[in-house]
Amino acid sequence: MWLRFSLTKSARGKQSCQEATLAIGCGPVAAAKLAARYAFENDGLIRVEVVMAVDNSASRRVAEKSGAQYQGILGNRMVVGRDVYNAHMYSLIPEDFGLAPSL
User: Fold this and answer.
1) Can you give the pLDDT at residue 101?
2) Burial classification of residue 62, based on how many CB atoms lie within 10 Å of its CB (0-12 exposed, 13-18 middle, 19 or more buried)
3) Is the pTM of this model over 0.90?
């Protein structure tokens, strides 16, 4: 299962992400936590990975505020058009929410 959001550099800092998360009634940090917890409780996931381009400080803040643990930099992880980017990876696991992993 994939949950993905993507904003182009030109959209960052504009109201796009705020408007999208307000439509579901919460900010980006709460939305990330809600999505991860739902996936653990209802879809049997045992890990959620949060990946963003190394220059995307806004997404890093969301990952960190949601409690995701930093895993490191992944070389050549993202492809956008014909451009290749390194990416930061964070992860959440069921235990981060006081849940036991279940398969």
Assistant:
1) 93
2) buried
3) no
